[in-house]
Specification:
The complex is a heterodimer of chains A (about 325) and B (about 260).
Chain A (H helix, E strand, L loop, with lengths): L3 E14 L5 E15 L4 E5 L6 H8 L7 E6 L2 E2 L4 H7 E5 L11 H11 L4 H14 L15 H12 L6 E5 L7 H16 L3 E6 L2 H7 L2 E6 L2 E6 L1 H5 L6 E7 L4 H8 L4 E9 L2 E8 L6 H7 L5 E7 L3 H12 L1
Parallel strand pairs in A: 3-8, 3-9, 6-7, 7-8
Antiparallel strand pairs in A: 1-2, 1-4, 4-5, 9-10, 11-13, 11-14, 12-13
Chain B lengths: L2 H22 L3 H21 L5 H34 L1 H6 L5 H30 L9 H28 L7 H11 L14 H5 L2 H13 L5 H36 L6
The chains are: A alpha/beta (about 325), B mainly alpha (about 260).
């Protein structure tokens, strides 16, 4: 039996618009997606903002009712047997919300342990163990309002493990964390993976998904557009090289000119303060560099690197191709 | 539901109540609702009716305490659900295996328990500021009535909470729900002063039976049969409220999950 089975799941949001001429606007957030997560697997769900990742997780954690389709978690239907699902899962939604800031870290855990039906004798032992596991040993008596963002995120992990669930849903758990905090957090996730927990992780940090996931589904505009291992996804761009060009204020007209060159498969631009990083995907590799430089003639150029494609490049190609 | 579950739920109710009190005691609005507002009502009533003597002072003490009880239930319980929505904890509460009505029962228990402070405040004011010599006419029966009343108020509050789960905007109607219950419940003056058509409405409100019995055991020698009748009415209404609330919670939580109103996103 798979830990998670998703079958043609669809979710539509309806919003009322207008004051006098009221009408209902429908937005399809998740559009008939299907996938399975095996027991003990770390399954990544990747996609841009608004792709439908959080909506999918909320349906699987019983917090939203699907408009169509079905899903089961630990063999239980997420709508008809919601309470059975809730006993077996833990979930985290990224960010600082979802905790009681006026209570201490220990009291937050004691509260949720009670809500998850954990015996008080067990929770007395489990809370200090979990606080140590997530690196908050000795901070349990402090109010959560005084915790840093990273500490709150780690407290979320402790909260979600209180009842020792088999399946974890982590929705962008490292969002907003500093690099050290994010690295520590990933170490905790790897530790959970070693304990054979099934984990569904959503993120838009490619290296995170690459480093942690057994398999990844890329979701865009509510649809699964690719599902494979990180290595398998990279095969989508195995014929390509990436030319990275650092520029300073290249205008849109120049970028359009570059984009129109026939040997360029795709071009994405990352703004980095004063600089822009142009990521040119091409089958010509280093041979493309002189033509790229010619197209950028007159622009101030910094570093130029030619490298092998990464998961991020595969993602850009797959998602870019959908745009 | 088996006994093991009942015991577990009761333990959860106590933990929820404890955590709610810890969270709310640092909130100045809650202190206003349970201490300052009843204090103001008590001062005004005691000033206006000071010639009426000690019995009436006790009536005011109990009555203003009841206003605190109702205000706390209406505002604090309602606001706490909206505040949970804003802080992102409402989803966490709905996503646990403990039924949501058990959680709200614990929250209401905390609110009702801490609102007893209103009664203590009014008693202190009447005794020390106005110099009344206050004593309960039937102290033991008053204490038993107080427990019945707390239970009746908690169950009555449970019927209101599901609406707050579903509708974010219901907060705007809270003020409109506050004073009618003060008046129809007979908290500060007898309902005999109201027009006849209002009496049946009062009879349908559990706070009315609580007010009757609390006033009757604190300021008058209410016959035991009448006290028993009030207790009986409170039990009947509590059971009816529990049944209605459990159905309402099922419907409203399902609707909230369909319409995505558990979070503010």
């Amino acid at each position: 039996m798979n830990a998670v089975e998703v079958n043609q799941l669809r979710r539509i949001y309806r919003a009322q618009i207008g004051v006098f001429n009221r009408s209902i606007k429908e937005v399809v957030a998740v559009d008939e997606i299907s996938f399975d997560v095996k027991q003990g697997e770390l399954f990544g769900l990747l996609g841009p903002n608004g792709a439908g990742k959080t909506t999918t997780v909320k349906m699987l954690t019983t917090l939203l009712i699907p408009s169509l389709g079905s899903a089961s978690v630990a063999g239980f239907d997420v709508v008809k047997q919601a309470n059975e699902v809730r006993k077996r899962i833990g979930f985290i939604f990224g960010g600082e919300r979802g905790l009681y800031w006026r209570l201490s870290g220990d009291d937050n855990l004691r509260y949720f342990a009670s809500l998850y039906g954990v015996d008080p004798d067990i929770s007395k032992k489990r809370i200090p163990y979990l606080m140590e596991l997530v690196g908050l040993k000795g901070r349990g008596n402090e109010r959560v309002g005084g915790y840093s963002r990273g500490m709150k995120q780690r407290l979320h992990v402790a909260r979600t493990l209180l009842h020792d669930p088999d399946i974890l849903f982590l929705d962008e758990p490292t969002i907003g964390l500093d690099p050290v905090g994010a690295r520590e957090f990933r170490a905790v996730i790897l530790d959970l993976q070693a304990q054979k927990k099934t984990i569904l992780l959503t993120t838009h940090y490619m290296f995170e998904a690459d480093a942690l996931s057994d398999r990844i589904a890329i979701i865009n505009k509510g649809r699964v557009i690719a599902l494979d291992t990180p290595g398998g996804l990279k095969q989508h761009v195995s014929d390509l090289s990436v030319v990275e060009v650092e520029t300073f204020g290249a205008p849109d007209s120049t970028l359009e000119k570059l984009r129109s060159l026939p040997f360029i498969d795709s071009l994405s631009v990352e703004d980095r303060e004063q600089k822009q990083m142009l990521l040119v995907q091409t089958k010509r590799g280093a041979e493309a560099v002189p033509d790229v430089m010619a197209a950028l003639d007159g622009q101030r150029i910094g570093r130029v690197i030619v490298r092998e494609p990464t998961l991020e490049d595969a993602y850009v190609r797959l998602v870019g191709g959908q745009s | 539901m088996n006994y093991a579950n009942l015991f577990r739920y009761w333990r959860t109710v106590l933990t929820v109540a404890e955590m709610s009190i810890r969270t709310q005691f640092s909130d100045s609005f809650i202190l206003f609702a349970i201490v300052f507002q009843p204090m103001i009502i008590a001062i005004l009533a005691l000033f206006m009716l000071r010639e009426k003597g000690g019995d009436y002072a006790m009536f005011v003490v109990v009555g203003s305490g009841l206003t605190g009880l109702w205000s706390s239930l209406l505002f604090v319980s309602g606001n706490s659900i909206n505040s949970e929505r804003w802080t992102g904890t409402l989803e966490s509460l709905v996503g646990v295996p403990t039924p949501f009505d058990v959680i709200v029962f614990g929250k209401n228990l905390a609110n009702v328990f801490q609102s007893l402070l209103s009664m203590v405040t009014s008693y202190t004011l009447a005794a020390f500021l106005f110099g009344y010599s206050l004593s309960f006419t039937q102290p033991l029966l008053f204490m038993v009535t107080l427990w019945f009343s707390m239970f009746a108020f908690i169950c009555f509050g449970l019927t209101i909470a599901p609406v707050f789960v579903m509708y974010r905007s219901v907060q705007q109607w809270q003020n409109a729900m506050e004073f009618p219950v003060y008046i129809l419940g007979g908290f500060l003056f007898p309902i005999a002063m109201l027009p006849g058509w209002a009496t049946p409405i009062s009879y349908l409100l559990p706070p009315y039976w609580a007010a009757q019995a609390l006033h009757g055991t604190s300021t008058a020698m209410m016959p035991f049969e009448q006290i028993l009748f009030c207790w009986g009415m409170m039990i009947v209404f509590s059971v009816v409220d529990l049944i209605i609330a459990s159905q309402l919670f099922k419907v409203m939580l399902y609707k909230a999950r369909v319409e995505a109103t558990l979070d503010v996103d």
